Design the sequence.
């Protein structure tokens, strides 16, 4: 039966050096942060856990690889703000990030996933299957590292470009969260007309929602 330390050891071997080479300055086995101007890049590897395993049939040590970018110029709304490290740098969890996504598996694991009863679970590409005996652990972690290079790095490059990120935010469906992010992106980029427009839209949406 494989354990978390078994997986972490290979994550450090295969993934951590690649993350450091690509601007992540604080790297642990399953979490990494990089700082670029006003952007905090976050990569987080999370196991699906026993509850998910019991319901779906995925082994509990199987993982997802989540990506996120947090922007320090967007005021925090909530109860507990992201924490800072010993150097005073923001180290948010991926769930706090303003832009979020995940890596997708390229490794063919159908010999494992075909045994799942739910067709939707068999079709998933956002989870990497770890056999309970660890027999496929190395090839699986190699695939996570390769997917960071081919998919993750371009994603982070896009969402640490503020102009491109604003364009993607503007393409989202209208809602309070969109207006809030767009307002502060426009302000950061010095786009006064857009800043005023989205500020007004945010206030109107907040009133409509009765907040």
Sequence:
């Amino acid at each position: 039966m494989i354990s978390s330390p078994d997986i972490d050891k290979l994550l450090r071997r295969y993934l951590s050096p690649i993350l450091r080479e690509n601007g992540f300055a604080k790297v642990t086995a399953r979490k990494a942060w990089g700082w670029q101007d006003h952007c905090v890049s976050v990569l987080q590897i999370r196991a699906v856990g026993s509850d998910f395993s019991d319901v779906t049939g995925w082994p509990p040590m199987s993982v997802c690889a989540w990506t996120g970018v947090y922007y320090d110029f967007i005021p925090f709304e909530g109860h507990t703000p992201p924490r800072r490290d010993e150097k005073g740098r923001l180290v948010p969890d991926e769930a706090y990030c303003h832009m979020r996504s995940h890596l997708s598996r390229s490794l063919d694991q159908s010999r494992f996933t075909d045994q799942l009863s739910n067709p939707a679970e068999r079709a998933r590409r956002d989870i990497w299957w770890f056999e309970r005996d660890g027999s496929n652990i190395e090839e699986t972690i190699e695939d996570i590292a390769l997917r960071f290079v081919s998919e993750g790095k371009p994603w982070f490059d896009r969402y640490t470009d503020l102009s491109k990120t604003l364009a993607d935010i503007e393409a989202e469906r209208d809602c309070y969260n969109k207006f809030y992010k767009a307002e502060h992106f426009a302000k950061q980029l010095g786009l006064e007309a857009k800043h005023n427009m989205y500020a007004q839209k945010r206030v109107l949406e907040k009133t409509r929602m009765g907040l």
The chain has a mean pLDDT of 96.
